[in-house]
Amino acid sequence: MPLVRIDALRADRDRLAALGRAVHDALIETIGIPPDDHFQILVSHDGTNSTLHYGSYFGIDRDDDIVYVAITLRAGRTPAQKQALYRRIADLAHTYAGTAPRNVFVTLTENASIDWSLGNGEAQYITSAAVADGPPSPSAGTAARE
Are 47 and 7 in contact (CB under 8 A)? Predict the structure, then answer.
């Protein structure tokens, strides 16, 4: 169950939607989240009342098309999976939204199952029989794994 926040400068509704779709599709393709595991916060900054700052750290020439993607998810992905995710997000952001890969800045924050309440004031990953009893069966779907 990743929670995604995407911040972009002067992005209209269509660009935000395209960026959100790029990140969601990349999460499905590279780490196997279920398609209905879709929780995103999409924010456009107007450049006056709210803005984004960026530099050329690591020699990357970023510009006002900068997009910050912050993903919070449960721990357990390999370095190779994370690298594939970063690459796929950059590729799809370019394809769907026209954002140059150099302007796609991604961070992952990992946590544990107890750190999630998906509603009703419960810790579903802890109280769910599928999680408490081990890995879900194939018939249980993949929702409990993410």
Answer: no
pLDDT above 70: residue 146: no
Active-site residue, selected from the candidate residues 2, 34, 101, 138: 2
2 is catalytic: yes
Q: Which two tokens stand for residue 136?
A: 């879900």
Tens of pLDDT, residue by residue over 23-45, are 999 999 999 999 999 999 999 99
One-letter-per-residue 3-state SS of the chain: CCEEEEEEECCCHHHHHHHHHHHHHHHHHHHCCCCCCCCEEEEEECCCCCCCCCCCHHHCCCCCCCEEEEEEEECCCCHHHHHHHHHHHHHHHHHHHCCCHHHEEEEEEEECHHHCCCCCCCCHHHHCHHHHCCCCCHHHCCCCCC
